[in-house]
Amino acid sequence: MSAPSSVRLEERTWPEVETALENGRRTAIVAVGSIEQHGPHLPLNMDALDGDELSRRIAEELGDALAAPTIRPGCSGHHMEFPGTITVPPETLMDLIRAYCRSLDDHGFEHVVLVPTHGGNFAPVSTVAPDIAREIDANVIALADLDDHMALLNEGLRDAGIDYQEDVIHAGAAETAMILAIDEGLVRTDRLEAGPEGSISTARLLSEGFESITENGVLGDPDEATAKAGEAIFDAVTDAYVERIEAERDAVR
User: Fold this and answer.
1) Coil vs helix vs strand at 231
2) How far apart are CA 12 and CA 185, in angstroms?
3) Which residues are paired to 113 by β-bridges?
4) Under 8 Å CB-to-CB from 193, ≥6 apart: which residues?
5) What do you get for the CA distance between the two ends of the chain, in Å?
6) DSSP-derived secondary structure for 97-114
7) Distance between CA atoms of residues 77 and 92, nearest Å
8) Between 20 and 30 A from 132 (CA), which of 23, 101, 125, 228?
9) CA-based R_g, the chain, Å
10) pTM check: above 0.85
11) Residues 144-200 pLDDT 10s
12) Cα dihedral sign, 39-42-43-46
């Protein structure tokens, strides 16, 4: 039987993971997603799908990594006005991330990369990562700059020739494009609705909830999205993150 080709940790048997570690695959990519509303046209697991795809692409491009199962749900209290959203307290999410990292460290992974794909998870990841790094032997790399992440998504839109900028990204052009790139059938194209555009108070979104800003849960115009733009977004984020991971790994060698 041929060697497993999937970089997804969960799709391998334990002997296959053991062999991968022995052969130098000692970086684990851990996306931190959510289960929350993404307007009337995108599924609740948008951020988890994003995490699955992004962690896979990063692991494949690195060539010596495995993609761990995406953590979900996340910190989504500001979406709870919309049915189906599931949220956990920041402390619960941080405890789960800590347990993930400890498990991977116990098995011999030397680098654990945390990749939040939901805005509400960036602060908890940034907060807990230094503590975890002091507790385990593995090097903990947290790619948790929300402004930088949204800039990369907008960069992907531009790379695809879409002249459209989203100041705060949620269920609009960028995220709809990403799901189109993953599986067009998951986008309810008959339910595309625009939401508020331009300058939006993130403080108000977090303190008063999304419904205080947008009735349909959308920010921006999802009708601007294309599958080509989704591919360009994943390329932009993957390339930038791989470069940073390699630099972080080199710094501790």
Assistant:
1) helix
2) 27
3) 29, 141
4) 39, 40, 41, 216, 218, 222
5) 35
6) HHHHHHHHHHTT-SEEEE
7) 13
8) 23
9) 18
10) yes
11) 999 999 999 999 999 999 999 999 999 999 999 999 999 999 999 999 999 999 888
12) negative
* Secondary structure letter of residue 160 according to DSSP: T
Amino acid identity for residue 79 in this structure: H
Does a cis peptide bond (omega within 30 degrees of 0) precede residue 73? yes
CA distance 89 to 17: 32
Name the token pair of 221.
Answer: 């115009």
* pLDDT tens figures, 104-144: 999 999 999 999 999 999 999 999 999 999 999 999 999 99
Ordered alpha helix ranges (H), the chain? 14-22, 46-62, 90-106, 122-135, 146-159, 173-182, 202-208, 227-251
Alpha-carbon gap, residue 54 to 152, rounded angstroms: 13
